[in-house]
Amino acid sequence: MVKSVSRRGFFGASAGLLLASRTNATPALTPAAIAKGESRRGNITAAMKLIDKEIVAGLRGKKSIIIKPNIVNTQRQLASTHVDALNGILDYIATTKWNGAVYIAEASAGFTTEGYSNFKYQQAVDEHKKLNVKLVDLNEVGLFETIHLLNGDLHPQPVRLAQQLLDPDAFVICSCMLKTHNTVIATMNIKNMALGIPLHSKRSETKKWNDKRVYHGGVRQTHYDIMRTAERMHRNWGVGVIDGFEGMEGNGPNSGSPVASKIAIASRDMLAADRIGSECMGIDPAVLGYLQWCEKVGVGTWDRAKIEVRGETVESVVKKYRLHTDVERMMQWMGPLTELPPKLG
């Protein structure tokens, strides 16, 4: 005998089954794409096209695109974003029919405009006239919001962050490289974003200051301060793009040697892109403290099991990068503090 079910009971049971199916469904993975080839520019565009659906969805409702390059050194090309990496990003943007504002914006540790000139960024602007790209020196603009970080004495210290990179209406694209580092072992998207937003004095100011120096207060403070800055910034992050056509090993981020990896990595999740980037460099992700901490505060996905790799596999492109000669001291962020203040109360 079939038991009769009321209309209310039927829809109630159906809703319960639907809820159960959603609860038991496998969570969606975070996509990260790897492209490999003989063209830096082509690799960048190809990697972004592998996550085209996700990028287009993220662009909806945004008023501007800001491309944040890495100009840690205004003189040495290997240490800084190549113009063809920017060309690859702009080539992709042109395919989306974007009609809003486009900026290339940086707050270099040196004079940003010198980097723009030395690395020929104006060529990328001229080649993409329909996008009406503008070059911005965030140090000279000088608008900022404040965050308090830990300095070398473990005291809170205010740091001025470039206001434009915190604009909720902006879709921020990070254009960085695969590089070893002299403090946090490896630098990619998160490090570029966090250390590219603190400002320093304008050329016209007689009293010189540089808020980037606060981040170098100690082997633990640097990891913590990057995490705190990324936590503040990440809400308008659009795409992390890593140029690994020619990475840097050894004494990065300035004085290292080139590595011809010939890859590009892209993800809507900059932390996920960095996880894949670290694997492509043959670096144990467990030593990258600031990136692990970023996941703990909701900046992105670091858990490898939650990342879907599109395009090339990590195994097919991995190259073991030689680390900085000072790496043993960098590793001390993981160990116990040897000099502890008294514990009272």
Describe this structure in words.
The strands form two sheets. Strands 1, 2, 3, 4, 7, 8, 9, 10, 11 and 12 form a ten-stranded mixed β-sheet that branches. A two-stranded antiparallel ribbon has the order 5-6. The protein has a single domain (29-332), classed as LarA, N-terminal domain (Rossmann fold, 3-Layer(aba) Sandwich), CATH 3.40.50.11440. It starts with 6 loop residues before the first helix and ends in a 15-residue tail after the last helix. The longest helix has 18 residues, at 7-24. The protein has helices spanning 7-24, 40-49, 52-59, 83-95, 112-118, 121-127, 138-141, 189-196, 219-233, 270-280, 289-296, 314-317, 327-330, and strands at 30-36, 64-68, 101-106, 133-137, 144-150, 156-162, 170-180, 186-187, 237-249, 257-259, 263-267, 307-311. A hairpin with a 5-residue loop joins strand 7 and strand 8. Helix content is 34%, strand content 22%. 46% of the residues are buried. With 345 residues, it is of the alpha/beta class.
Can you lay out the helices and strands and say which pair or pack?
Blueprint: H1 7-24, E1 30-36, H2 40-49, H3 52-59, E2 64-68, H4 83-95, E3 101-106, H5 112-118, H6 121-127, E4 133-137, H7 138-141, E5 144-150, E6 156-162, E7 170-180, E8 186-187, H8 189-196, H9 219-233, E9 237-249, E10 257-259, E11 263-267, H10 270-280, H11 289-296, E12 307-311, H12 314-317, H13 327-330
Parallel strand pairs: 1-12, 2-3, 2-7, 3-4, 7-9
Antiparallel strand pairs: 1-11, 5-6, 7-8, 9-10, 9-11
Helix pairs in contact: 2-4, 4-6, 8-9, 9-11
